[in-house]
Amino acid sequence: MSTKRTVQFKIYRYDPDRDDKPYMQDISVDLEPSDKKLLDALVRLKVKDDSTSFRRSCREGVCGSDAMNINGKNGLACLTEVDDLKQPIVLRPLPGLPVIRDLIVDMTQFFKQYHSIKPYLVNNDPAPERERLQSPEDREELNGLYECILCACCSTSCPSFWWNPDKFVGPAGLLAAYRFIADTRDQEASERLDNLEDPYRLFRCHTIMNCVDVCPKSLNPTRAIGKIKDMMVRRAV
Amino acid sequence: MVKPHIVGAHYGLRDWLGQRVTAVLMALYTVIFAFNALMLPEMSYEAWSGMFGGGFMQFATFLFFMSLFYHAWVGVRDIFMDYIKPVGVRLALHVIVLFLLIGYAGWVARILWRL
């Protein structure tokens, strides 16, 4: 049994209604033996200083609400072991998005890009009596794509997204785009490729793979982007 | 003013592919160049200009510089797209770089075929 332990935090604080500018707050929290994840520690911290703001919901890596920059790397607080982190644990909001308050960012731009790729099946055939079936092989292609929880860890670690969030779809959006391009039940693959054939929307990706490095679900947006480029080459050459 | 979300400039693939193809070409030329330079009997002006005087080297060197300029055009344009936000300034810079590179291409041809 582990004993009681204390963790040191350095947290980005900013309340636009009260603060002129953001500052870093040093604060320490005593943890209970049952506190395993960074989110557990944050919940303890919230008890100590209830002005600290962050998003959280499912606390098991499914909803993607508690994405933040942890010791310089984006991740989910609920999946990060608190004991593995170097102290003081430096917490900042996801980089590149407007801060609403403390660790809470405005994700409008991120979702705008996600919606721009039409993240739904387009099939104009009359709906069958039961579901539209896929062969196991075709279904296999969607593995590693459909699991994305839209936490924005990847897109907000991508310099191309920082510079052009209004024009570059970003790794999360492009992963989702390929998820529908690769779906045999979808009938709009060509239009989807047209939508992405643009120097900004797709080709801002310079394959630096920050997205792969941070994805809490271990997905690989770079591979998906490569496959989209591959399809474009096949279509054009 | 209403700002509609406009997508699909319908270019990008050619430049992206072109940058990759020219990169491979330049890598190949670097090997050929290094091999030829190391094989020179002596480091003199005559030997050096003679190396570029042959038809194959002229062709390959010209191709190398064309690749370099195309590669640089895409790369520099990408940098402007990231960092220069006012569209007018960006367009002006694009045009300046494009004309510079075209000028360099003519200069390269003149040097190579003068040898």
How would you characterize the overall build of this protein?
The complex is a heterodimer of chains A (237) and B (115). Helix content of chain A is 30%, strand content 15%. In chain A, helix 2 (108-116) runs parallel beside helix 5 and helix 5 (170-181) packs across helix 8. Chain A starts with a strand and ends with a helix. Chain A is α+β, with helices and mostly antiparallel strands and 237 residues long. Chain A has helices at residues 38-48, 108-116, 136-140, 159-163, 170-181, 189-196, 210-214, 221-236, and strands at 5-13, 23-31, 67-70, 73-76, 89-92, 99-101, 104-105. Chain A folds into 2 domains: 5-105, Beta-grasp domain (Ubiquitin-like (UB roll), Roll); 108-236, Fumarate Reductase Iron-sulfur Protein, Chain B, domain 2 (Orthogonal Bundle), CATH 1.10.1060. By secondary structure, chain B is mainly α. Chain B has one domain (13-114): Fumarate reductase/succinate dehydrogenase, transmembrane subunit (3 helical TM bundles of succinate and fumarate reductases). Chain B is built from 4 helices and no strands. Chain B is elongated.
Going by CATH, the architecture of chain B would be Up-down Bundle
State the CATH class of chain B: Mainly Alpha
Kindly identify the CATH topology of chain B: 3 helical TM bundles of succinate and fumarate reductases
Q: What class, by secondary structure content of chain B?
A: mainly alpha
Number of DSSP strand runs of chain B: 0
Q: In the CATH classification, which architecture of the largest domain in chain A applies?
A: Orthogonal Bundle
Q: What is the approximate shape of chain A? A: elongated
Catalogue the unreliable spans of chain B: none
**What's the CATH topology name of the largest domain in chain A?**
Fumarate Reductase Iron-sulfur Protein, Chain B, domain 2
pLDDT below 50 for ≥5 consecutive residues: which ranges of chain A?
none
Q: Rounded to an integer, what's the Rg of chain B over CA atoms? A: 19 Å
Helix residue percentage of chain B: over 70%
Order of helices and strands of chain A: EEHEEEEEHHHHHHH
Strand count, sense and barrel status of the largest sheet of chain A are:
5 strands, mixed
Spatial sequence of strands, sheet with the most strands of chain A: 2-1-5-3-4
> Largest interface, counted with CB-CB under 8 A?
A-B, 22 and 16 residues
**Number of spatially distinct domains of chain B:** 1
Oligomeric state: heterodimer
